[in-house]
Design a protein that fits this description.
heterotrimer; A alpha/beta (426); B mainly alpha (392); C alpha+beta (580); A: 426 residues; alpha/beta; seven-stranded mixed sheet; 12 helices; 39% helix; 19% strand; C: 580 residues; alpha+beta; ABC transporter involved in vitamin B12 uptake, BtuC; 3 domains; five-stranded antiparallel sheet; two-stranded antiparallel sheet; 21 helices; 7 strands; 6% strand
Amino acid sequence: MMSLKRLLSRSLLLVVAVAAATAASAAGVIKVGVLHSLSGTMAISEEPLKDTILMMIAEQNKKGGVLGRKLVPVVVDPASNWPLFAEKAQELLEKDKVAVVFGCWTSVSRKSVLPVFEKDDGLLFYPVQWEGEESSRNIIYTGATPNQQAIPAVQYLMNGMHVKRWALIGTDYVYPRTTNKILEAYLEAHGVKPADIMIRYTPFGFSDWQSIVAEIKTFGSQGEKTAVVSTINGDANVPFYKELANQHISAEDIPVMAFSVGEQELSGLDTRPLVGHLAAWNYFMSVRTPANRAMIRAWHAYIGNDKRVFNDPMEASVIGFRLWVKAVQKAHSTNADKVIAALPGLEVPNLTGGTAQVLADHMITKPVLIGEIRPNGQFDVVWRTQGEVPGEAWSPYLAADKGVISDWVHAKCGHYDTVTRVCSGQ
Amino acid sequence: MGVPEMAPQAAADSRLAVPAGGGRVAGLFDRPTQVVLPLLAAALVLVPLLNLAVPASSVLHVSSYTVGLLGKYATYALLALAVDLVWGYCGILTLGHAAFFALGGYAIGMYLMREIGGRGVYGNSSLPDFMVFLNWKALPWYWHGFEHFWLAAAMVMLAPAALALVFGWLAFRSRVTGVYLSIMTQALTYALMLVFFRNETGFGGNNGFTDFKDILGFDLQASTTRVALFAAAVIALALGYLACRLVVTSRTGRVIQAVRDAESRARFIGYRVESYKLWVFVFSAVLAGIAGALYVPQIGIINPSEFSPVNSIEIVIWVAVGGRGTLYGALAGALLVNYAKTYLTEALPEVWLYALGALFVLTTLFLPRGVAGLLSRGHRAVTGADPAGSPR
Amino acid sequence: MRTLRHRDPGVLGPVSGRGRWGAALLWVALLGVAAAAAAVAGVPATSAGTPASEAAGGQRALLLAGLKSADYAVKAAIITQMAGQDDPGTRAFLAQLLQENVYSRESDGRIFIARQIGQGYALLDAATGMAAGTVSEDDLNSDFDPIGINDQLRSLLQSVLARFDLSSPDASTRLAAVTTLLQAFNDSTGNAATAGVTALLRARLGVERDRAVRRALQTGLALAALGSGSAGQRLAAIERLGSSLNPDVYNRLVALTAPATEPDPRVRAAAGRAVREIDGWREFYGGVQTLIFGLGLGAVLVLAAIGLAITFGVMGVINMAHGELIMLGAYTAYVMQLLLPNHIGASVVLAVPAAFLVSGSCGVLIERSIVRFLHGRPLETLLATFGVSLVLQQLARDVFSPDNRPVSAPTWMTGSLQINDALSITYNRLVVLLLTLVVFAALLLIMKRTRLGLQVRAVSQNRAMARAMGVRSHWVDALAFGLGSGIAGIAGVALSQLTNVGPELGQSYIVDSFMVVVFGGVASLWGTLIGGMLIGVVNMILEPYAGAVLGKVLVLVGVILFIQRRPRGLFPQRGRAAEG
């Protein structure tokens, strides 16, 4: 049964990791920490990221490791439990003494490990789309900030599809709240009246969409092109789309632009009712570039299953790993301080034909792609930005962030107010 | 609905009887207490010593990580005590005690958030970070005053107490008992969880409170502070244990156990059953709140998932495994199960849920008196002693 | 009315001619026959094969070649041009383009329509309409480029197809076409497009026989008249439109109340009156809609809770594994679909008894192996069953996957029943509501008319007395537990259609089930039904005002407070033994 195999492989992994850890100092290896949930509610999303990092480590070892030393993964399972994330981060940094950690998915988990990384002076690569409003010296954020996903998506709807009325529907947590605040400010700055914006929040795991969809239908049948901007959390999108289809709202009537629906969420789903709805990401598995094809081939070979998908957070993990390797090689050391100093300015290729560069605020540059859902669960890219968009930690559309920048190279500050010339949050 | 609930096995507990000689204080310090308190004292002295005085390279060194872990276990043990008091001794199966734990945690969390002051990311000394980026204009009324530690400390005890008082008064007055009451407590904690998850409620929503800087001026990340928090947790545990012993060996304790064993009879004899239940419920809620307040600074985060019904049921299993109706059993159960959890989620995460599930089933089927029951059976087997006055 | 196209052929296979493949095939066959006939008779026919049509076909090939372009604006222009041509093959081709079955061959750029047969695809040359062999899926992916469309193109294609569909032989297709065309009137300014649509509608009204389509056409023409120059005509149009609930009509009428768009005060007043009347009707139907939503939600709650009510009533134990038994039922529905991938409808119907058996036997197993030994200790039973629920959850994760599993809906459960423009009921909720009522009726029958029911009622009222009368209470326990668990399984099948099927499915419904049982009164079927429906309706009423979370919290608090007043629920059990 699947569980026995996984059980054995996990035990084996642990034995290997422990053995490696104990022999570490003598053998001259570099330990790489992986802090992703392997059980609990987040396991569905986070386990592929763990596998991606392990695959990258194996590949790098085939090339001789880094600085002539082999890489050894140390995998821990925080089990979708936020306090446990902090505990496991401490374990990785203090007990296992890893050189770098790739991990976290939810903002809560990242916020709970942040003090640990800052105190123990570790380095974390965070690969998931997030709401911004943070910039830490010890974290490199390879996931999209709102200006690398939400704003370009809204621009596409406004200019490309002439949308006049907006329904911002999200799950009630920080990412949708912040994103919608930014979007609301952006829309109003571009002449949209407050009466033309409808904002609703639902709890996690909400599945009874009848009345909200009816509300959207009424809101959208006032004669002007309406779109839904969905920051609904992954799973809950499925009953939402089904209800839309059942109430005869097609993508041509009221398109839904989602930020948390990717190939992973669509895999194994009946996507026919969803055809035509949109998603905004920095990567799609259907992008036809040699780099992407090669990566997908390698992924299928590694995981032993041709049906597995590759998605945006996995690409972000790959970029983060490549950046770390390059920084270590540049700094000739795995010491976190030296690597952090070496990172800003480094550039590595991404999988969609461009590059990703680390900026002074510890975000990276990413292209923005808008895709339409196809019946086979893949996305058809209908629009993309010309080059890459630089990530912004502090949104210029939020009153609290006016004039605030993050600069770890010169100002050495994550929240620097250029007006009052004060650095806060240290 | 069937036969009135009897708990014969708990009635056979020899701790029930006031000992023949020795008086009040001697009754307080029975055999298990004579083991537990010295153990706690030893931990209180040894662990800080081995962490601060012994160098890191030595084999005897206890890492800061372990200090934090042990401190966490201590707060869980206090929480288990609270539940044991209300369930093992009073017969109220509460499936929502994590709510009181979390409320205490949130109270101290509010203080810690205010302590951050201007050192938050936005440099706003009057508003915590999460309020700033959610565009709140001013601090809500229920946040005022939490920059003072004494207010936060008072709220740690008052907030759970108030909730327990209101809920308990409504429930016990209407004679809601047994399974109904358990379901109600579960609904209560579930509702609170939903409320605290909302961002409008002003408690950080899904993120909760994070990024604490210091407590009472001491940096939370420093190893001395961690040791101090550990010590505080152990002292609180010891005091809580003593307090519970006091309650349990007093007349109130006897009445409470009578209520557990035969509620109607106790009522007909003349005791105001509702008042006793309410008192115990509130006291236990306060204990849980204190446990929560000691938990949060050590963990560094408080989050609405602490309210989830699953957490509450897990507390019950700690008490069941350890042996309800015996205070030391609650301590033992909390330590055992949590250690197993830490070990298994690291080594064999797949197995953990099966193990936990099996623990529930096997304990209720074969170990109704938990590990404490095993120990006392072993003790009887070895010494041949028969527990005094054990009606079957 | 536009129904959702679904590839499921249904239990009996493709229904006559309605499937798009049927239509395309028919067209191709007709084409071939007409071509042959024309070639033989030399008579100009409305199909490819005559010199005129060949020329049109050649023209089409040129246009088609342009479709390879990646630019959506270019594609839109081509589609508009094709629509303007008098070419009968156009409609079928554009329908295929809408379905995204059109490909261009990489080697020579020719355009083909690909139709799936078995493992491969049959190719049709789009320019000539001739069959062009078959190709495997891999070859299709590597040698052919799909002609992609985006949402704007989809809208354009739909309005173009609607024009063709105005003369379709099927009445509902014509009605759907008129509805699509009416959307052109949403733009309050009169322009060439609406003038064209008006002419089409008028022409069609002359020959239309079907009543529903005639009404729609008249509404459309009245809408057009709203933009007329004469105030009198506008007034007359408003009279005619009266209390139409059509949203396009409503929007135009609202626009007419503004002085900026409507100079004549009489027309404005008339429009204002009409708008107020429509508002009143909309509010009424809105209320009915909320009620129906509430009943839909309540039906789910009732199904989930009714099994619990039985086990609680008979044995006084709360089965914490109840949620997982619901989950087992949902997974049974999933497995059924894996076994019968081509008969989704049948799989759902068969899943109901299958889930009953699976969850029921699981329930009996739990009862025999665990609950039986904890007799008289309901709190321990609660804990033990919680342990079982953890094990079942992890089992589901290991056997299936921690991911959600997809469960498709059969055709008769997709879409909605449109009662009028302001009121519609989604089929899936309607089916679940009916299922709930059927299950309830069956349970009532079992309880009141069968021997088992008699024994169950006896044991739940007074166990000792029932045993003294010779009832084997242990068997009754086991069977009651099994019955309750089986109903949970059926609830799982219903839920699989409404929400995600994953290992945590049960956890989301367990607290709600408890609430319904406790509110309605233990062991009372009617209590569960009424309690569940009440909770569902109240929840739905609160939702638009308080938001989803607060609404749920208020309902929970309301139930908790209610229990203080009536600790035994809405329909308490009677009898002295019940007080124990």
